[in-house]
Amino acid sequence: MDQDYVIEANNLACDYSEDSDVTKGIVLAQVKIPRVGVTVIVGPSGSGKSTLLSLLSGIRKPSEQSEGAKLNFYDFEENIELNLLESKSARKAKLGFVFQEPHLIKEISARSNAGIASHLLNRKNNIVDADRLAHDFGVNQVIEQRADTLSGGQAQRIAIVRALTVNPDILVCDEPTSSLDEETGTSLLDSISQWAHENGKAVLWVTHNLQQAA
Ligand code: ADP
Ligand code: MG
Fold it and tell me: In 124-200, which ranges are E strands?
């Protein structure tokens, strides 16, 4: 087991041509995601970033024709290697997700939204306190508010808190700043990067913004 990487992938392919007249999809020869810090995936719209993320996180199974496909997740705490190509193992991988939109439930408080992931996964152990995370991400002042009263940046920070309460080893972020202005987006990336380095975690960060990627 290579201690430096949390995900190692080889020969993964996704082919969408069955659903379309044009051949499209992606082929991934080899990727290793460092165990700590932010790994940025950058490319224009439609280049396959979301497809790549869903393949790497085991959400989308590679096309049947991918020979020698490998997708391993290294859980260092448990000292085990999980094969994400098997759905049983994929469920055990410690992954958190954040998307372009925060997808909060409008009628309930920010705190109730933040607690939903651990509640739905029925997790009792290894939960990170939502209030502590809200403090770290600068949204503790608004945690009592109804979700529909939050600004875009605050809502996205609550979505991040929701993802982190289950203590993932990797936070998978699919363009979480694309609905935010440049400054709010940069500040969000800074907070996530700080979280990754302080807690020894990995972030997969997708963006079409070259400046942000740099
Ligand atoms: P990005 O996230 O970089 O914008 P995507 O991974 O969403 O790119 O899409 C890559 C390509 O695959 C695009 O041409 C898109 O239209 C196509 N695509 C994405 N999802 C599907 C799908 N479920 N069925 C068919 N084609 C798809
Ligand atoms: Mg996308």
Answer: 170-174
Q: How many whole angstroms separate alpha carbon 13 and alpha carbon 65? A: 8
Element (H, E) at 165: none
Taking the CA atoms of 154, 160, 161 and 162 in sequence, report the sign of the dihedral they define.
positive
pLDDT digits (tens, 9 = 90+) for 86-122: 988 887 889 999 999 999 999 999 999 999 988 887 7
Q: For residue 22, what pLDDT is reported?
A: 64
pLDDT in tens, 124-183: 777 889 999 999 999 999 999 999 999 999 999 999 999 999 999 999 999 999 999 999
Mean pLDDT of 186-214: 94
**Residue located nearest, by CA, to atom 20 of ligand 1:** 51
Helix (H, G, I), strand (E, B) or coil at 147: helix
Residue nearest to atom 24 of ligand 1 (CA): 16
Closest ligand 1 atom, CA of 44? 3
Give the model's pLDDT for residue 105: 97
Question: Coil, strand or helix: which one is 115?
Answer: coil
Report the residue among 14, 18, 51 best suited for mutation to probe ligand 1: largest number of ligand atoms under 8 A from its CB: 51
Judge contact between 201 and 169, C-beta under 8 A.
yes
Measure the CA–CA gap between 145 and 102, rounded to whole angstroms: 15
Instruction: Ligand 1 pocket test: pick from 19, 20, 23, 24 the residue with the most ligand atoms within 8 Å of its Cβ.
Output: 24
User: Where do we find the tokens 């403090």?
Assistant: 135
Q: Which two tokens stand for residue 47?
A: 């280049």
